């Protein structure tokens, strides 16, 4: 458990394999159809100057070339060393068959222009028809699924770690049953060090957080400030998190924003956060969480805000047998 007095020096969480993960990272997803070229590049360069060392990306975001270029340039100009940067890449749903795992990671490395990633995770436990079409659909517009054994995919990931292509291995959007499938795999060589899931004051994930703690798995919270209001994939029944009166009032006490309070809340629970922003002001602002801490009373009050409602439901894939969100946690 990270102490409430999370010092400016110790801005990272130890992982079960001996590596460390910075507690705050920059999420780099942007709708490829709407995000101007160069946006991710500029945002990552700025973020490194601000102090971010953790970057969360994915091949399927279609901007890893920009993220990689920004990182390489900041290494070249002496701002950071490669060892100081923590990059998380993701295995997309069309690359689950074991023979496609390493080529997918090698493609990410080539796109980034890096020799290794720090963390490579299975992005979603649902498998799609293998191939280079990221969202394969049939003539009726239905997604084409694929039956795959997650344990076989994990073994291929273990081989990537053994080959030095990634320092650590993890998963994303896995429920307890799916985590146990990996943890109880015969001949398991490398445990998942992290599980990236939606986590914020309106969706605090207490049971999954406790299960992961017991198994030395760090929760990385995506959408830690809620999420965009894009009705095509976001549950709009949930009110905007950052307008919550409690978060706003606690923020006033510390001369902070509701976003600062939400991020600090997660970090004090031992959850790493990856707020996504391409706004210069927000990128700078979101990093200002190391100069105050919440009291136990405040943390308890924020925990009570939990509505147990997801913003990110991904219902379009809810008929897949490995869709993770039917289970309680």
UniProtKB/TrEMBL annotation:
Active site: 61 (proton donor)
GO molecular-function term, one example from the UniProt record: Delta4-3-oxosteroid 5beta-reductase activity
Stretches assigned to the NADP-dependent oxidoreductase domain: 24-306
Gene3D superfamilies (alphabetical): NADP-dependent oxidoreductase domain
Residue numbers marked as site, Lowers pKa of active site Tyr: 90
Name of one Pfam family that matches: Aldo_ket_red
InterPro entries assigned: AKR, AKR1D1, Aldo/ket_reductase_CS, NAD(P)_OxRdtase_dom_sf, NADP_OxRdtase_dom
GO biological process per UniProt: bile acid biosynthetic process
Family from the record: Belongs to the aldo/keto reductase family.
PANTHER family the record matches: ALDO/KETO REDUCTASE
Name the record gives this protein: 3-oxo-5-beta-steroid 4-dehydrogenase-like
Species annotation: Triplophysa rosa (Cave loach)
Source lineage: Eukaryota, Metazoa, Chordata, Craniata, Vertebrata
